[in-house]
Write a structure and sequence with these properties.
Order of helices and strands of chain B: EHEHHEEHEHEEHHH
CATH topology of chain B: Rossmann fold
Oligomer: heterodimer
Radius of gyration of chain B: 18 Å
Distance between the termini of chain B: 42 Å
Shape of chain A: globular
Distance between the termini of chain A: 52 Å
Helix content of chain A: 40-55%
Number of strands of chain B: 7
Number of helices of chain B: 8
CATH superfamily of chain B: Flavodoxin domain
CATH superfamily of chain A: Luciferase-like domain
Largest interface: A-B, 32 and 24 residues
Shape of chain B: globular
Order of helices and strands of chain A: EHEHEEHEHHEEEHEHEEHHEHEHHH
């Protein structure tokens, strides 16, 4: 089981002080949070991708992930999510393969469609094509990482003839891909078809939605012959705020909850905790709740928590990570491991993927062209 | 087979004239159906108790509490009777919020009887300029007679009396339900959602649809 955190990179006013961090402060805080995540023993740090205020999340997450990779040793760096709808799959193939090399394989990705309406037209797309863009673009990305000379034609970008995405993925093994969707079974179907992971964000909606989506994904994973349903690769989000005494946690978090983007000024904290998986309480309550997720999604591979949104100050977020790393995750790691049957796989890592591929492959770019003038192999050969 | 009628009433007081009008429309419609040998199940949905759930829905995007069941009841009804008080020259905000929360396809082909109440008959065209276009957008089949009741209608038996309009509207609604087999809810093309993921197209079909 992999445990980690995901951020959406929102720049939000701290409702208790009225202070809004600058973009620079927020960006540096996110790097500090990622480093802290490794320090306290978490396995994964994932960043969102956004193209509009109030977010200071990267437009291209590989910039942040490469920076964090240079300052960490062990933690897996991922996205939450990469916009497969509006990004060019060619750029995704090359950027993430490059990041994979820099990070020695500690890179994976989560595909999503994006949640801001205008992001589609900003990139020349139409939100009504969201699902088909996700399907076509990922089909190309999947191919670019696995085939060296790609011929491709589709609706979403210019055709490719004899195209090789460079660099090739590290050891010839593509980064592991998760597909994230709250309510579109087509995306769970896509994840199942490729035998990729499926991630449910599991924070803003009742857990019954996550349970239905995961059940469907598992069923289809088996249908496509990747293994039994309980061997499908499932990730869940979650949102917690902890203090030793649960009443202290509630008192401290309430103003952040009441003013949070997405659900603020709506249901009460108590109602929202009852309706969704949000947990504000003691570390022990978080342990019990998280173990309970397994009861409706089965044995799963990755648990990510949202820890740093709604204007929580950096100091508080780092304290939360300490609690997570010291009191919560070690217990969960042990408990989940004891419950997991042997035939259920662990969360994929670069090492496990290389092993499954029968060992690493090395690549040397063949210079059929002239690497001084930059003329292409096609020009030389034609 | 039992016909289900979902009634949405947005009156705020108790008793409200909106609910009173809804009750008369239901009694008349159900009476006619039962007289022709049909079984009728009526689900009376008062919006006042759902007010908080509706406001929360606008902010969170999911239906909490009894709202989820109310939306489902309207979506699978064979007919809908929708009654709103007139607020500031239109339907009430809560009435609109309920239909905003409803899936856009949920009323496709469903017979709907619309009605409204107000303090004065000068508002009666609200039914034609506000409710009818909204239900047209939702692709519902709105019965020709829309029933408006001003306060004075509850004490009048003159020409065009409320009772006569209620009876005519109910007859028109019942006529739309005469030979409905299968029901609109059954005929509707299923939209793939997490509630029926098994209707998701096979991935190969999704892929090949892209190259068509």
């Amino acid at each position: 089981m992999q445990f980690g955190i995901f951020t959406v990179g929102d720049v939000t006013t701290d409702p208790t002080t009225g202070r809004t961090p600058t973009e620079n402060e927020r960006i540096k805080a996110i790097v500090a949070i990622a480093k802290k995540a490794e320090e306290v023993g978490l396995d994964v740090f994932a960043t969102g991708e956004h193209h509009n205020p109030p977010f200071a999340a990267p437009a291209n997450p590989t910039v942040l992930l490469a920076n964090v990779a240079a300052q960490t040793e062990r933690i897996i760096l991922s996205t939450s999510t990469t916009l497969i709808t509006t990004n060019d799959p060619v750029r995704l193939a090359e950027d993430y393969a490059y990041a994979q090399h820099l990070a020695d394989g500690r890179i994976d990705l989560m595909m999503g469609r994006g949640n801001t309406g205008p992001v589609y037209p900003w990139f020349g797309k139409d939100i009504r094509d969201g699902i088909s863009l996700a399907i076509e673009n990922y089909a190309l990305l999947h191919k670019l990482w696995r085939e060296e000379n790609v011929d491709w034609e589709g609706k979403s970008r210019t055709p490719l003839q004899g195209f090789t995405a460079t660099p090739r993925p590290l050891d010839g093994v593509a980064p592991f891909v998760w597909h994230g969707s709250i309510r579109s079974p087509e995306i769970a179907e896509q994840a199942a078809y490729y035998g990729d992971g499926y991630f449910h964000n599991h924070i803003f909606w009742p857990s019954s939605h996550a349970a239905k989506m995961v059940r469907y994904y598992r069923h289809r994973f088996e249908h496509y012959g990747h293994g039994t349903a309980d061997q499908a690769i499932v990730g869940l989000g979650g949102q917690v705020f902890m203090r030793k005494n649960s009443q202290d946690a509630i008192r401290e978090f309430r103003p952040y909850f009441d003013n949070a983007p997405v659900y603020g000024h709506g249901p009460s904290l108590e109602d929202f905790m009852q309706q969704t998986p949000l947990l504000v309480g003691s570390p022990q309550q978080v342990i019990e709740q998280t173990l309970g997720f397994r009861e409706y999604v089965g044995d799963y591979q990755r648990q990510l928590w949202l820890m740093d949104h709604a204007g929580l100050p950096l100091k508080t977020v780092l304290e939360q990570l300490d609690i997570l790393g010291e009191e919560v995750v070690p217990v969960l790691r042990k408990e989940f491991a004891a419950l997991k049957p042997a035939h259920v796989p662990d969360g994929p890592t670069h090492a496990s993927l290389v092993e499954a591929a029968g060992g690493p492959r090395e690549f040397h770019t063949v210079h059929a062209g002239d690497d001084v003038t930059g003329s292409s192999p096609e020009e030389v050969l034609s | 087979m039992t016909l289900s009628i979902a009634v949405v009433t947005a009156g705020l007081s108790d008793p409200s004239s909106t609910r009173l009008l809804a009750d008369r429309l239901v009694a008349e419609s159900a009476g006619l159906l039962e007289a022709s040998g049909r079984d009728v199940a009526v689900d009376m949905i008062e919006l006042r108790p759902l007010a908080h759930n509706l406001a929360d829905f606008m902010l969170t995007g999911f239906a909490s509490g009894d709202l989820e069941g109310a939306l489902a009841s309207v979506a699978r009804a064979d007919a809908v009777i929708a009654v709103s008080p007139v607020f500031t020259a239109s339907y009430s905000g809560m009435f609109k919020m309920f239909f905003d929360a409803l899936d856009n396809d949920a009323l496709d082909g469903t017979p709907v009887l619309i009605a409204a109440t107000a303090g004065t008959a000068r508002h009666s065209l609200v039914l034609e300029h506000a409710l009818r276009p909204m239900f047209a957008y939702l692709r519902a089949v709105v019965v020709p007679t829309a029933v408006f009741a001003a306060t004075e209608d509850f004490g009048s038996t003159s020409d065009g009396a409320l009772t006569g309009r209620v009876q005519r509207a109910a007859r028109q609604l019942v006529a739309l339900l005469a030979d409905q087999a299968p029901s609109p809810a059954e005929r509707r093309t299923t939209k793939v959602t997490i509630d029926n993921p098994e209707d998701t197209p096979d991935f190969e079909d999704m892929l090949s649809a892209l190259s068509r």
